């Protein structure tokens, strides 16, 4: 059994957000195209992070990787079409 105080609140938030995204995708409230757009927004944050603070870029890159992984997972589990590129 894990002591609740030893669990990082950021980890709890990540689990809740991932679960919410998967639930919304499962119910077809979010489309795969929506997830593609969300992933692109997260990846855009990587390029706009202040380079004076190295930890911020590390966190942004980690968030972008997590979003790519979640997008891949939802795509494999629920399918759907990617966003069209004009």
What layout of secondary structure does this protein have?
Blueprint: H1 9-26, H2 32-48, H3 54-78
Helix pairs in contact: 2-3
Tell me the structural class. mainly alpha
Enumerate the spans where pLDDT stays under 50 for 5 or more consecutive residues: none
Radius of gyration: 15 Å
- The total beta strand count reads 0
Task: Name the helicity range.
Answer: 55-70%
Summarize the entry for a quick read.
The chain has 86 residues and is mostly helical. The chain has helices at residues 9-26, 32-48, 54-78.
Word description of this protein:
The longest helix is centred in the last third of the chain and has 25 residues, at 54-78. The chain has 86 residues and is mainly α. Helix 2 (32-48) runs antiparallel to helix 3 (54-78). It contains 3 helices and no strands. The protein has a domain at 31-86.
List keywords for this structure.
single chain, 86 residues, mainly alpha, 3 helices, 70% helix, flat
